[in-house]
Amino acid sequence: MDASELIAQARSLQDGVVTLRRELHRSPEIGNYLPATRAIVEAALEDLPLDLHRHDRTSGIVAVLRGDKDGPATLLRGDMDALRMPEDTGLEFASENTGVMHACGHDLHTAMLVGAARLLTERRAELPGPVVLMFQPGEEGHHGARIMLEEGLLDVVSPLPARAFAIHVSTSFASGAIHVRPGPQMASSDEVRITIEGSGGHASAPHRAIDPVPVAAELIMAVQTAVTREFNALDPGVVTFGHVSAGTTHNVIPETAYLEGTVRALSAETRSRLHEMLRRVARHVPAAHGASASVEFKEGYPVTVNDADVTELVTTVAEDVLGAAAVHHMVHPIMGSEDWSYVLEQVPGAMAFLGACMPDQDPESAPSNHSNLVVFDEEAMVPGVAMYAAMALAPLA
Asked: Can you tell me whether residue 211 is helix, strand or coil?
């Protein structure tokens, strides 16, 4: 695999990749049902020799590119959904759907994967096995990858893919740089809801009521103490209550208080222990004050765990294609979450972060992913296309 030639091919496709990215950016959609997005992607793929599989429960598309060799397949993913938020970037191709924005770079991921499909079509004879192109909806909290797996994502080739690879752009890194690490790269993410039941009364006579407000405050502090004292700092957990509500006015003690938060961990064991701790604290702290509480969890994404061998391959390929200076080992995981984790539970694979900070901005202060002001450097899509293609072209062990 000639690295300079691969970059040159990716560069030759850049105009089309940018055009597609901007078309996607103008018409963002949310969740698992993305009819306009799917139509745009299918139109961009229609002249390529791909076996297309349309999913029914979502707008997912699986496209298979077959070469001359019958080795195991490589799975590549690009997610397609946007976020429910306004766009205030002022870009000429800004969102035309009010209150919806491609603020996480999924439009870049999708456009890069289409570009890689086009590049790999020109090099089919070199493929060590089929390439499964996964165009996924519903990454932003809608479990799109899990649903696509349930609908037979991995059944389009046999045997199962030998490796899986995804890219996620980020303005927190310099444009064109690859950041990756083996093992846990991103956290699990669950929601917790706690309802504290007391008894209401007049604010002037708290002794005649059971005030759930101080109980809620004590519960929050007890949870934070438990996180720092019960859990190994080298296998961290995070519990953040981002929504706390109680009462309707200043002089009434309410009957209930409501807490809503996020629970994050970097291992399945810590994830389970955090749930148990929250149930225990929510049982005993209110009980100490004569109140009670109910706890409800909404399960989110598992820990995103990069396979060590595939991560080593990503590093080697990135150094060959982009140069060693562009490749960085991530010392610490990120406590955000990703539903690519579902795929990595079934196929050895990895996700790499691709820097896409604008050249005139500092990654430390640039508007980040999920900001209404985030702007990604489209120039980063050249190494992105090359990396997708290079991972599919890399010899199988």
From this structure: coil
pLDDT (tens digit per residue) in 15-52:
999 999 999 999 999 999 999 999 999 999 999 999 99
Q: What is the pTM of this model?
A: 0.94
pLDDT tens per residue across span 281-331: 999 999 999 999 999 999 999 999 999 999 999 999 999 999 999 999 999
Judge whether 373 and 89 are in contact, CB under 8 Å.
yes
Q: Rounded to 10 degrees, what is the CA torsion of 59, 367, 380, 66?
A: -20
Q: What CA–CA distances, in Å, run from 354 to 67, 171, 276, 336, 339?
A: 27, 9, 36, 16, 18
Residue 57 DSSP code: S
The closest alpha carbon to 26, from 105, 99, 108, 93, belongs to 93
- Element (DSSP H or E) covering residue 245: strand 237-246
Question: Coil, helix or strand for 215?
Answer: helix
What is the helix (H) or strand (E) element at residue 128, kind and residue range?
none
Query: What's at 341, amino acid-wise?
Result: S
